[in-house]
User: Which sequence fits this backbone?
């Protein structure tokens, strides 16, 4: 619409301009032609006089001259005679009604003057053999439009046609040039303000929008900034490639956009983080919208024919409670996402006290790289008890970080950091190497223990994982079933097809696969049937309270039954007291793990614990009747030292 208006304006401008130029040039051409014509008249008049004089005898008398004059006069040319004093000699026939030539000029051989609408041009010539001079006076009439057309009509007609044609073309060309420039300018402005991948407003633009919204918030109704952080996006990006990651981000952007309506806005903060500005909403509505934002991310994304599941964590910060400007609000909202993660919640509103913790957390990311080199990391081993035999049949290797400054840092914190920074591959490589070596050493001492190690989602997409496990088993001559790899359901569901391929390869090596934290994720035993799984670990959240909570007990009982139907071993983690242990045994659970049996112990303590168990078992010499809870009573000293 605007482009059309501009083109019309240009067309009118060009046409007017070209017609003006044509008119100007026509006027100049006409004036020049007329002046040239007038300039030629004296010569014609001279010729005319000359013809007249040529017909006169050698010394003509006044009479002879006057007689001849009328023959040479025309409607526009009058002939006069001047005597020696310059006075007009009266004509016997009477003079034409021509204005008298100003006498003071008649001393000149030629000249012209303007009178009324006409121009008069005269020339004088001496009549040889007489004292008289002949004056030929020509009246050049201004021919008006007719003369104008005669002089410049045809060329001007052509020029006008050409000019109009040129003007139209010129207007169209310049119009399209302007349009293109406008488009380019718009594109440049758009590019500068938007994220090229998702076409969402970029961080700066969103920041300006937030600041502008703050300025116009008059009634101090809360203005909120939400930050959506995509979990495990790095894994997808690293394992499936950036093209896949980019496509996923585009789809995420479009889903988020579907929830946010003007004047609210969604933008890309950076990487896998999106920020949303919500205006004029009360706190509970903001939380509702936050849940909707997370909800739209739940259905599977389809990228390259793969179904990808991704979860988001959402942090909320309110103006003016949490910050006064955009930068502050965005920073607080990001901090709130850390708070949500560490509280294992999908959504959190910023709380002042979290700022320090979040800052420390960010700082830790830098330290973790050094920690791997400086041997600040350690593996602790948490025993697993066979509930039928009462023997320790293996242990789970759990990483520990003793930070030189901050002391003990729980794995829940640094594994997450390792996943975010990409250090998880190195961390897992180190864990697997240490675990396989430990298992091989135990075997060398005649103890056939199974050791489990935890895998992160990103490991499932690491093409180097399977060759590395194969190499370690080979190098340490460990029978593959003595290594158990624990994978959470959530990690597998990120990209189920790829995860299945990777698990099949591990299964082909002969190592055992355990589904960790069972019950907290997608929990589909039917789905497990399609995977090469050997064991499931019921999450401790169900086990710890099962004696007090009938629902939890039912879940545990049902899971044990279903898993056995699928020929899977069941491990219950989080066994904190003897009652739970006995209950699990009564339910038919195969293996138990928990503080009541043993806390995660440093290597030496774990070996001492296993030896102690062996001695106890040997002393009882009654494997069938071994009561683990009695047996474990004597081990308290080792456990206390270990944790
Ligand atoms: P997880 O794999 O579910 O490990 C079990 C966690 O439950 C361990 O916490 C263990 O100390 C704790 N636990 C065991 N028995 C009991 C009990 O009776 N009561 C209670 N309340 N807790 C019990 P930890 O060692 O802090 O590890 C936490 C999580 O960190 C692990 O959860 C695992 O997901 C992750 N993690 C630890 N080490 C590694 C590792 O080497 N690699 C990876 N990828 N993740 C690791
Ligand atoms: Ca585990």
Assistant:
């Amino acid at each position: 619409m605007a482009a059309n208006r501009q083109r019309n304006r240009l067309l009118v401008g060009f046409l007017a301009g070209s017609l003006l130029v044509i008119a100007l040039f026509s006027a100049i051409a006409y004036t020049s032609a007329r002046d040239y014509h007038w300039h030629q008249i004296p010569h014609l008049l001279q010729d005319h006089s000359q013809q007249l004089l040529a017909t006169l005898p050698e010394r003509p008398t006044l009479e002879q001259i006057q007689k001849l004059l009328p023959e040479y006069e025309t409607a526009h040319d009058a002939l006069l005679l001047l005597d020696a004093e310059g006075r007009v000699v009266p004509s016997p026939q009477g003079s034409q009604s021509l204005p008298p030539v100003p006498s003071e000029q008649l001393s000149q051989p030629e000249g012209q003057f303007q009178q009324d609408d006409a121009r008069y041009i005269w020339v004088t010539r001496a009549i040889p053999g007489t004292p008289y001079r002949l004056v030929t006076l020509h009246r050049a009439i201004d021919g008006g439009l007719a003369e104008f057309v005669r002089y410049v009509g045809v060329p001007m007609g052509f020029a006008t046609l050409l000019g109009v044609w040129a003007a139209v073309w010129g207007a169209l060309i310049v119009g399209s040039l302007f349009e293109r420039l406008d488009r380019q300018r718009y594109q440049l402005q758009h590019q500068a303000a938007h994220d090229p991948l998702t076409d969402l407003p970029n961080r700066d633009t969103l920041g300006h929008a937030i600041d502008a919204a703050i300025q116009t918030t008059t009634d101090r109704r809360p203005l909120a900034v939400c930050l959506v952080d995509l979990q495990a996006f790095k894994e997808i990006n690293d394992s499936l490639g950036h093209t896949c990651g980019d496509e996923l981000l585009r789809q995420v952007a479009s889903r988020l956009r579907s929830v946010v309506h003007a004047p609210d806005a969604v933008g890309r903060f950076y990487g896998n983080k999106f920020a949303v500005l919500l205006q004029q909403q009360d706190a509970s509505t903001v939380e509702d919208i936050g849940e909707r934002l997370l909800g739209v991310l739940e259905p599977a994304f389809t990228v390259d024919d793969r179904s990808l599941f991704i979860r988001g964590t959402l942090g909320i910060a309110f103006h003016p409670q949490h910050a006064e400007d955009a930068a502050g609000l965005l920073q607080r909202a990001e901090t709130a996402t850390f708070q949500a993660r560490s509280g294992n919640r999908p959504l959190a509103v910023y709380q002042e006290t979290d700022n320090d913790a979040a800052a420390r957390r960010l700082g830790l990311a830098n330290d973790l790289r050094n920690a791997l080199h400086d041997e600040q990391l350690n593996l602790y081993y948490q025993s697993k008890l066979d509930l039928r035999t009462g023997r320790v049949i293996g242990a789970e290797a759990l990483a520990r970080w003793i930070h030189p400054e901050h002391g003990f840092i729980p794995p829940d914190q640094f594994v997450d950091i390792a996943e975010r920074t990409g250090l998880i591959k190195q961390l897992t490589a180190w864990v697997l190497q240490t675990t396989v070596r430990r298992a091989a050493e135990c075997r060398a001492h005649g103890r056939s223990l199974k050791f489990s190690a935890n895998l992160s989602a990103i490991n499932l997409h690491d093409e180097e994982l399977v060759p590395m496990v194969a190499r370690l088993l080979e190098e340490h001559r460990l029978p593959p079933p003595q290594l158990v790899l624990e994978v959470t359901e959530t990690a597998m569901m990120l990209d189920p097809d790829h995860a299945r391929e990777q698990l099949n390869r591990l299964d082909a090596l002969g190592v055992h696969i355990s589904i960790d934290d069972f019950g907290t994720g997608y929990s589909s035993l039917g789905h497990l049937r399609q995977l090469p799984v050997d064991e499931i670990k019921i999450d401790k959240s169900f086990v710890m309270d099962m004696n007090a909570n009938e629902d939890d007990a039912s879940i545990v009982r049902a899971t044990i039954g279903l898993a056995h139907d699928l020929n899977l071993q069941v491990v219950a983690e989080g066994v904190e007291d003897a009652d739970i242990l006995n209950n699990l045994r009564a339910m038919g659970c195969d293996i138990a793990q928990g503080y009541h049996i043993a806390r995660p112990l440093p290597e030496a303590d774990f070996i001492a614990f296993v030896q102690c168990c062996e001695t106890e078992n040997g002393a009882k010499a009654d494997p069938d009747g071994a009561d683990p809870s009695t047996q474990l009573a004597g081990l308290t000293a080792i456990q206390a030292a270990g944790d």
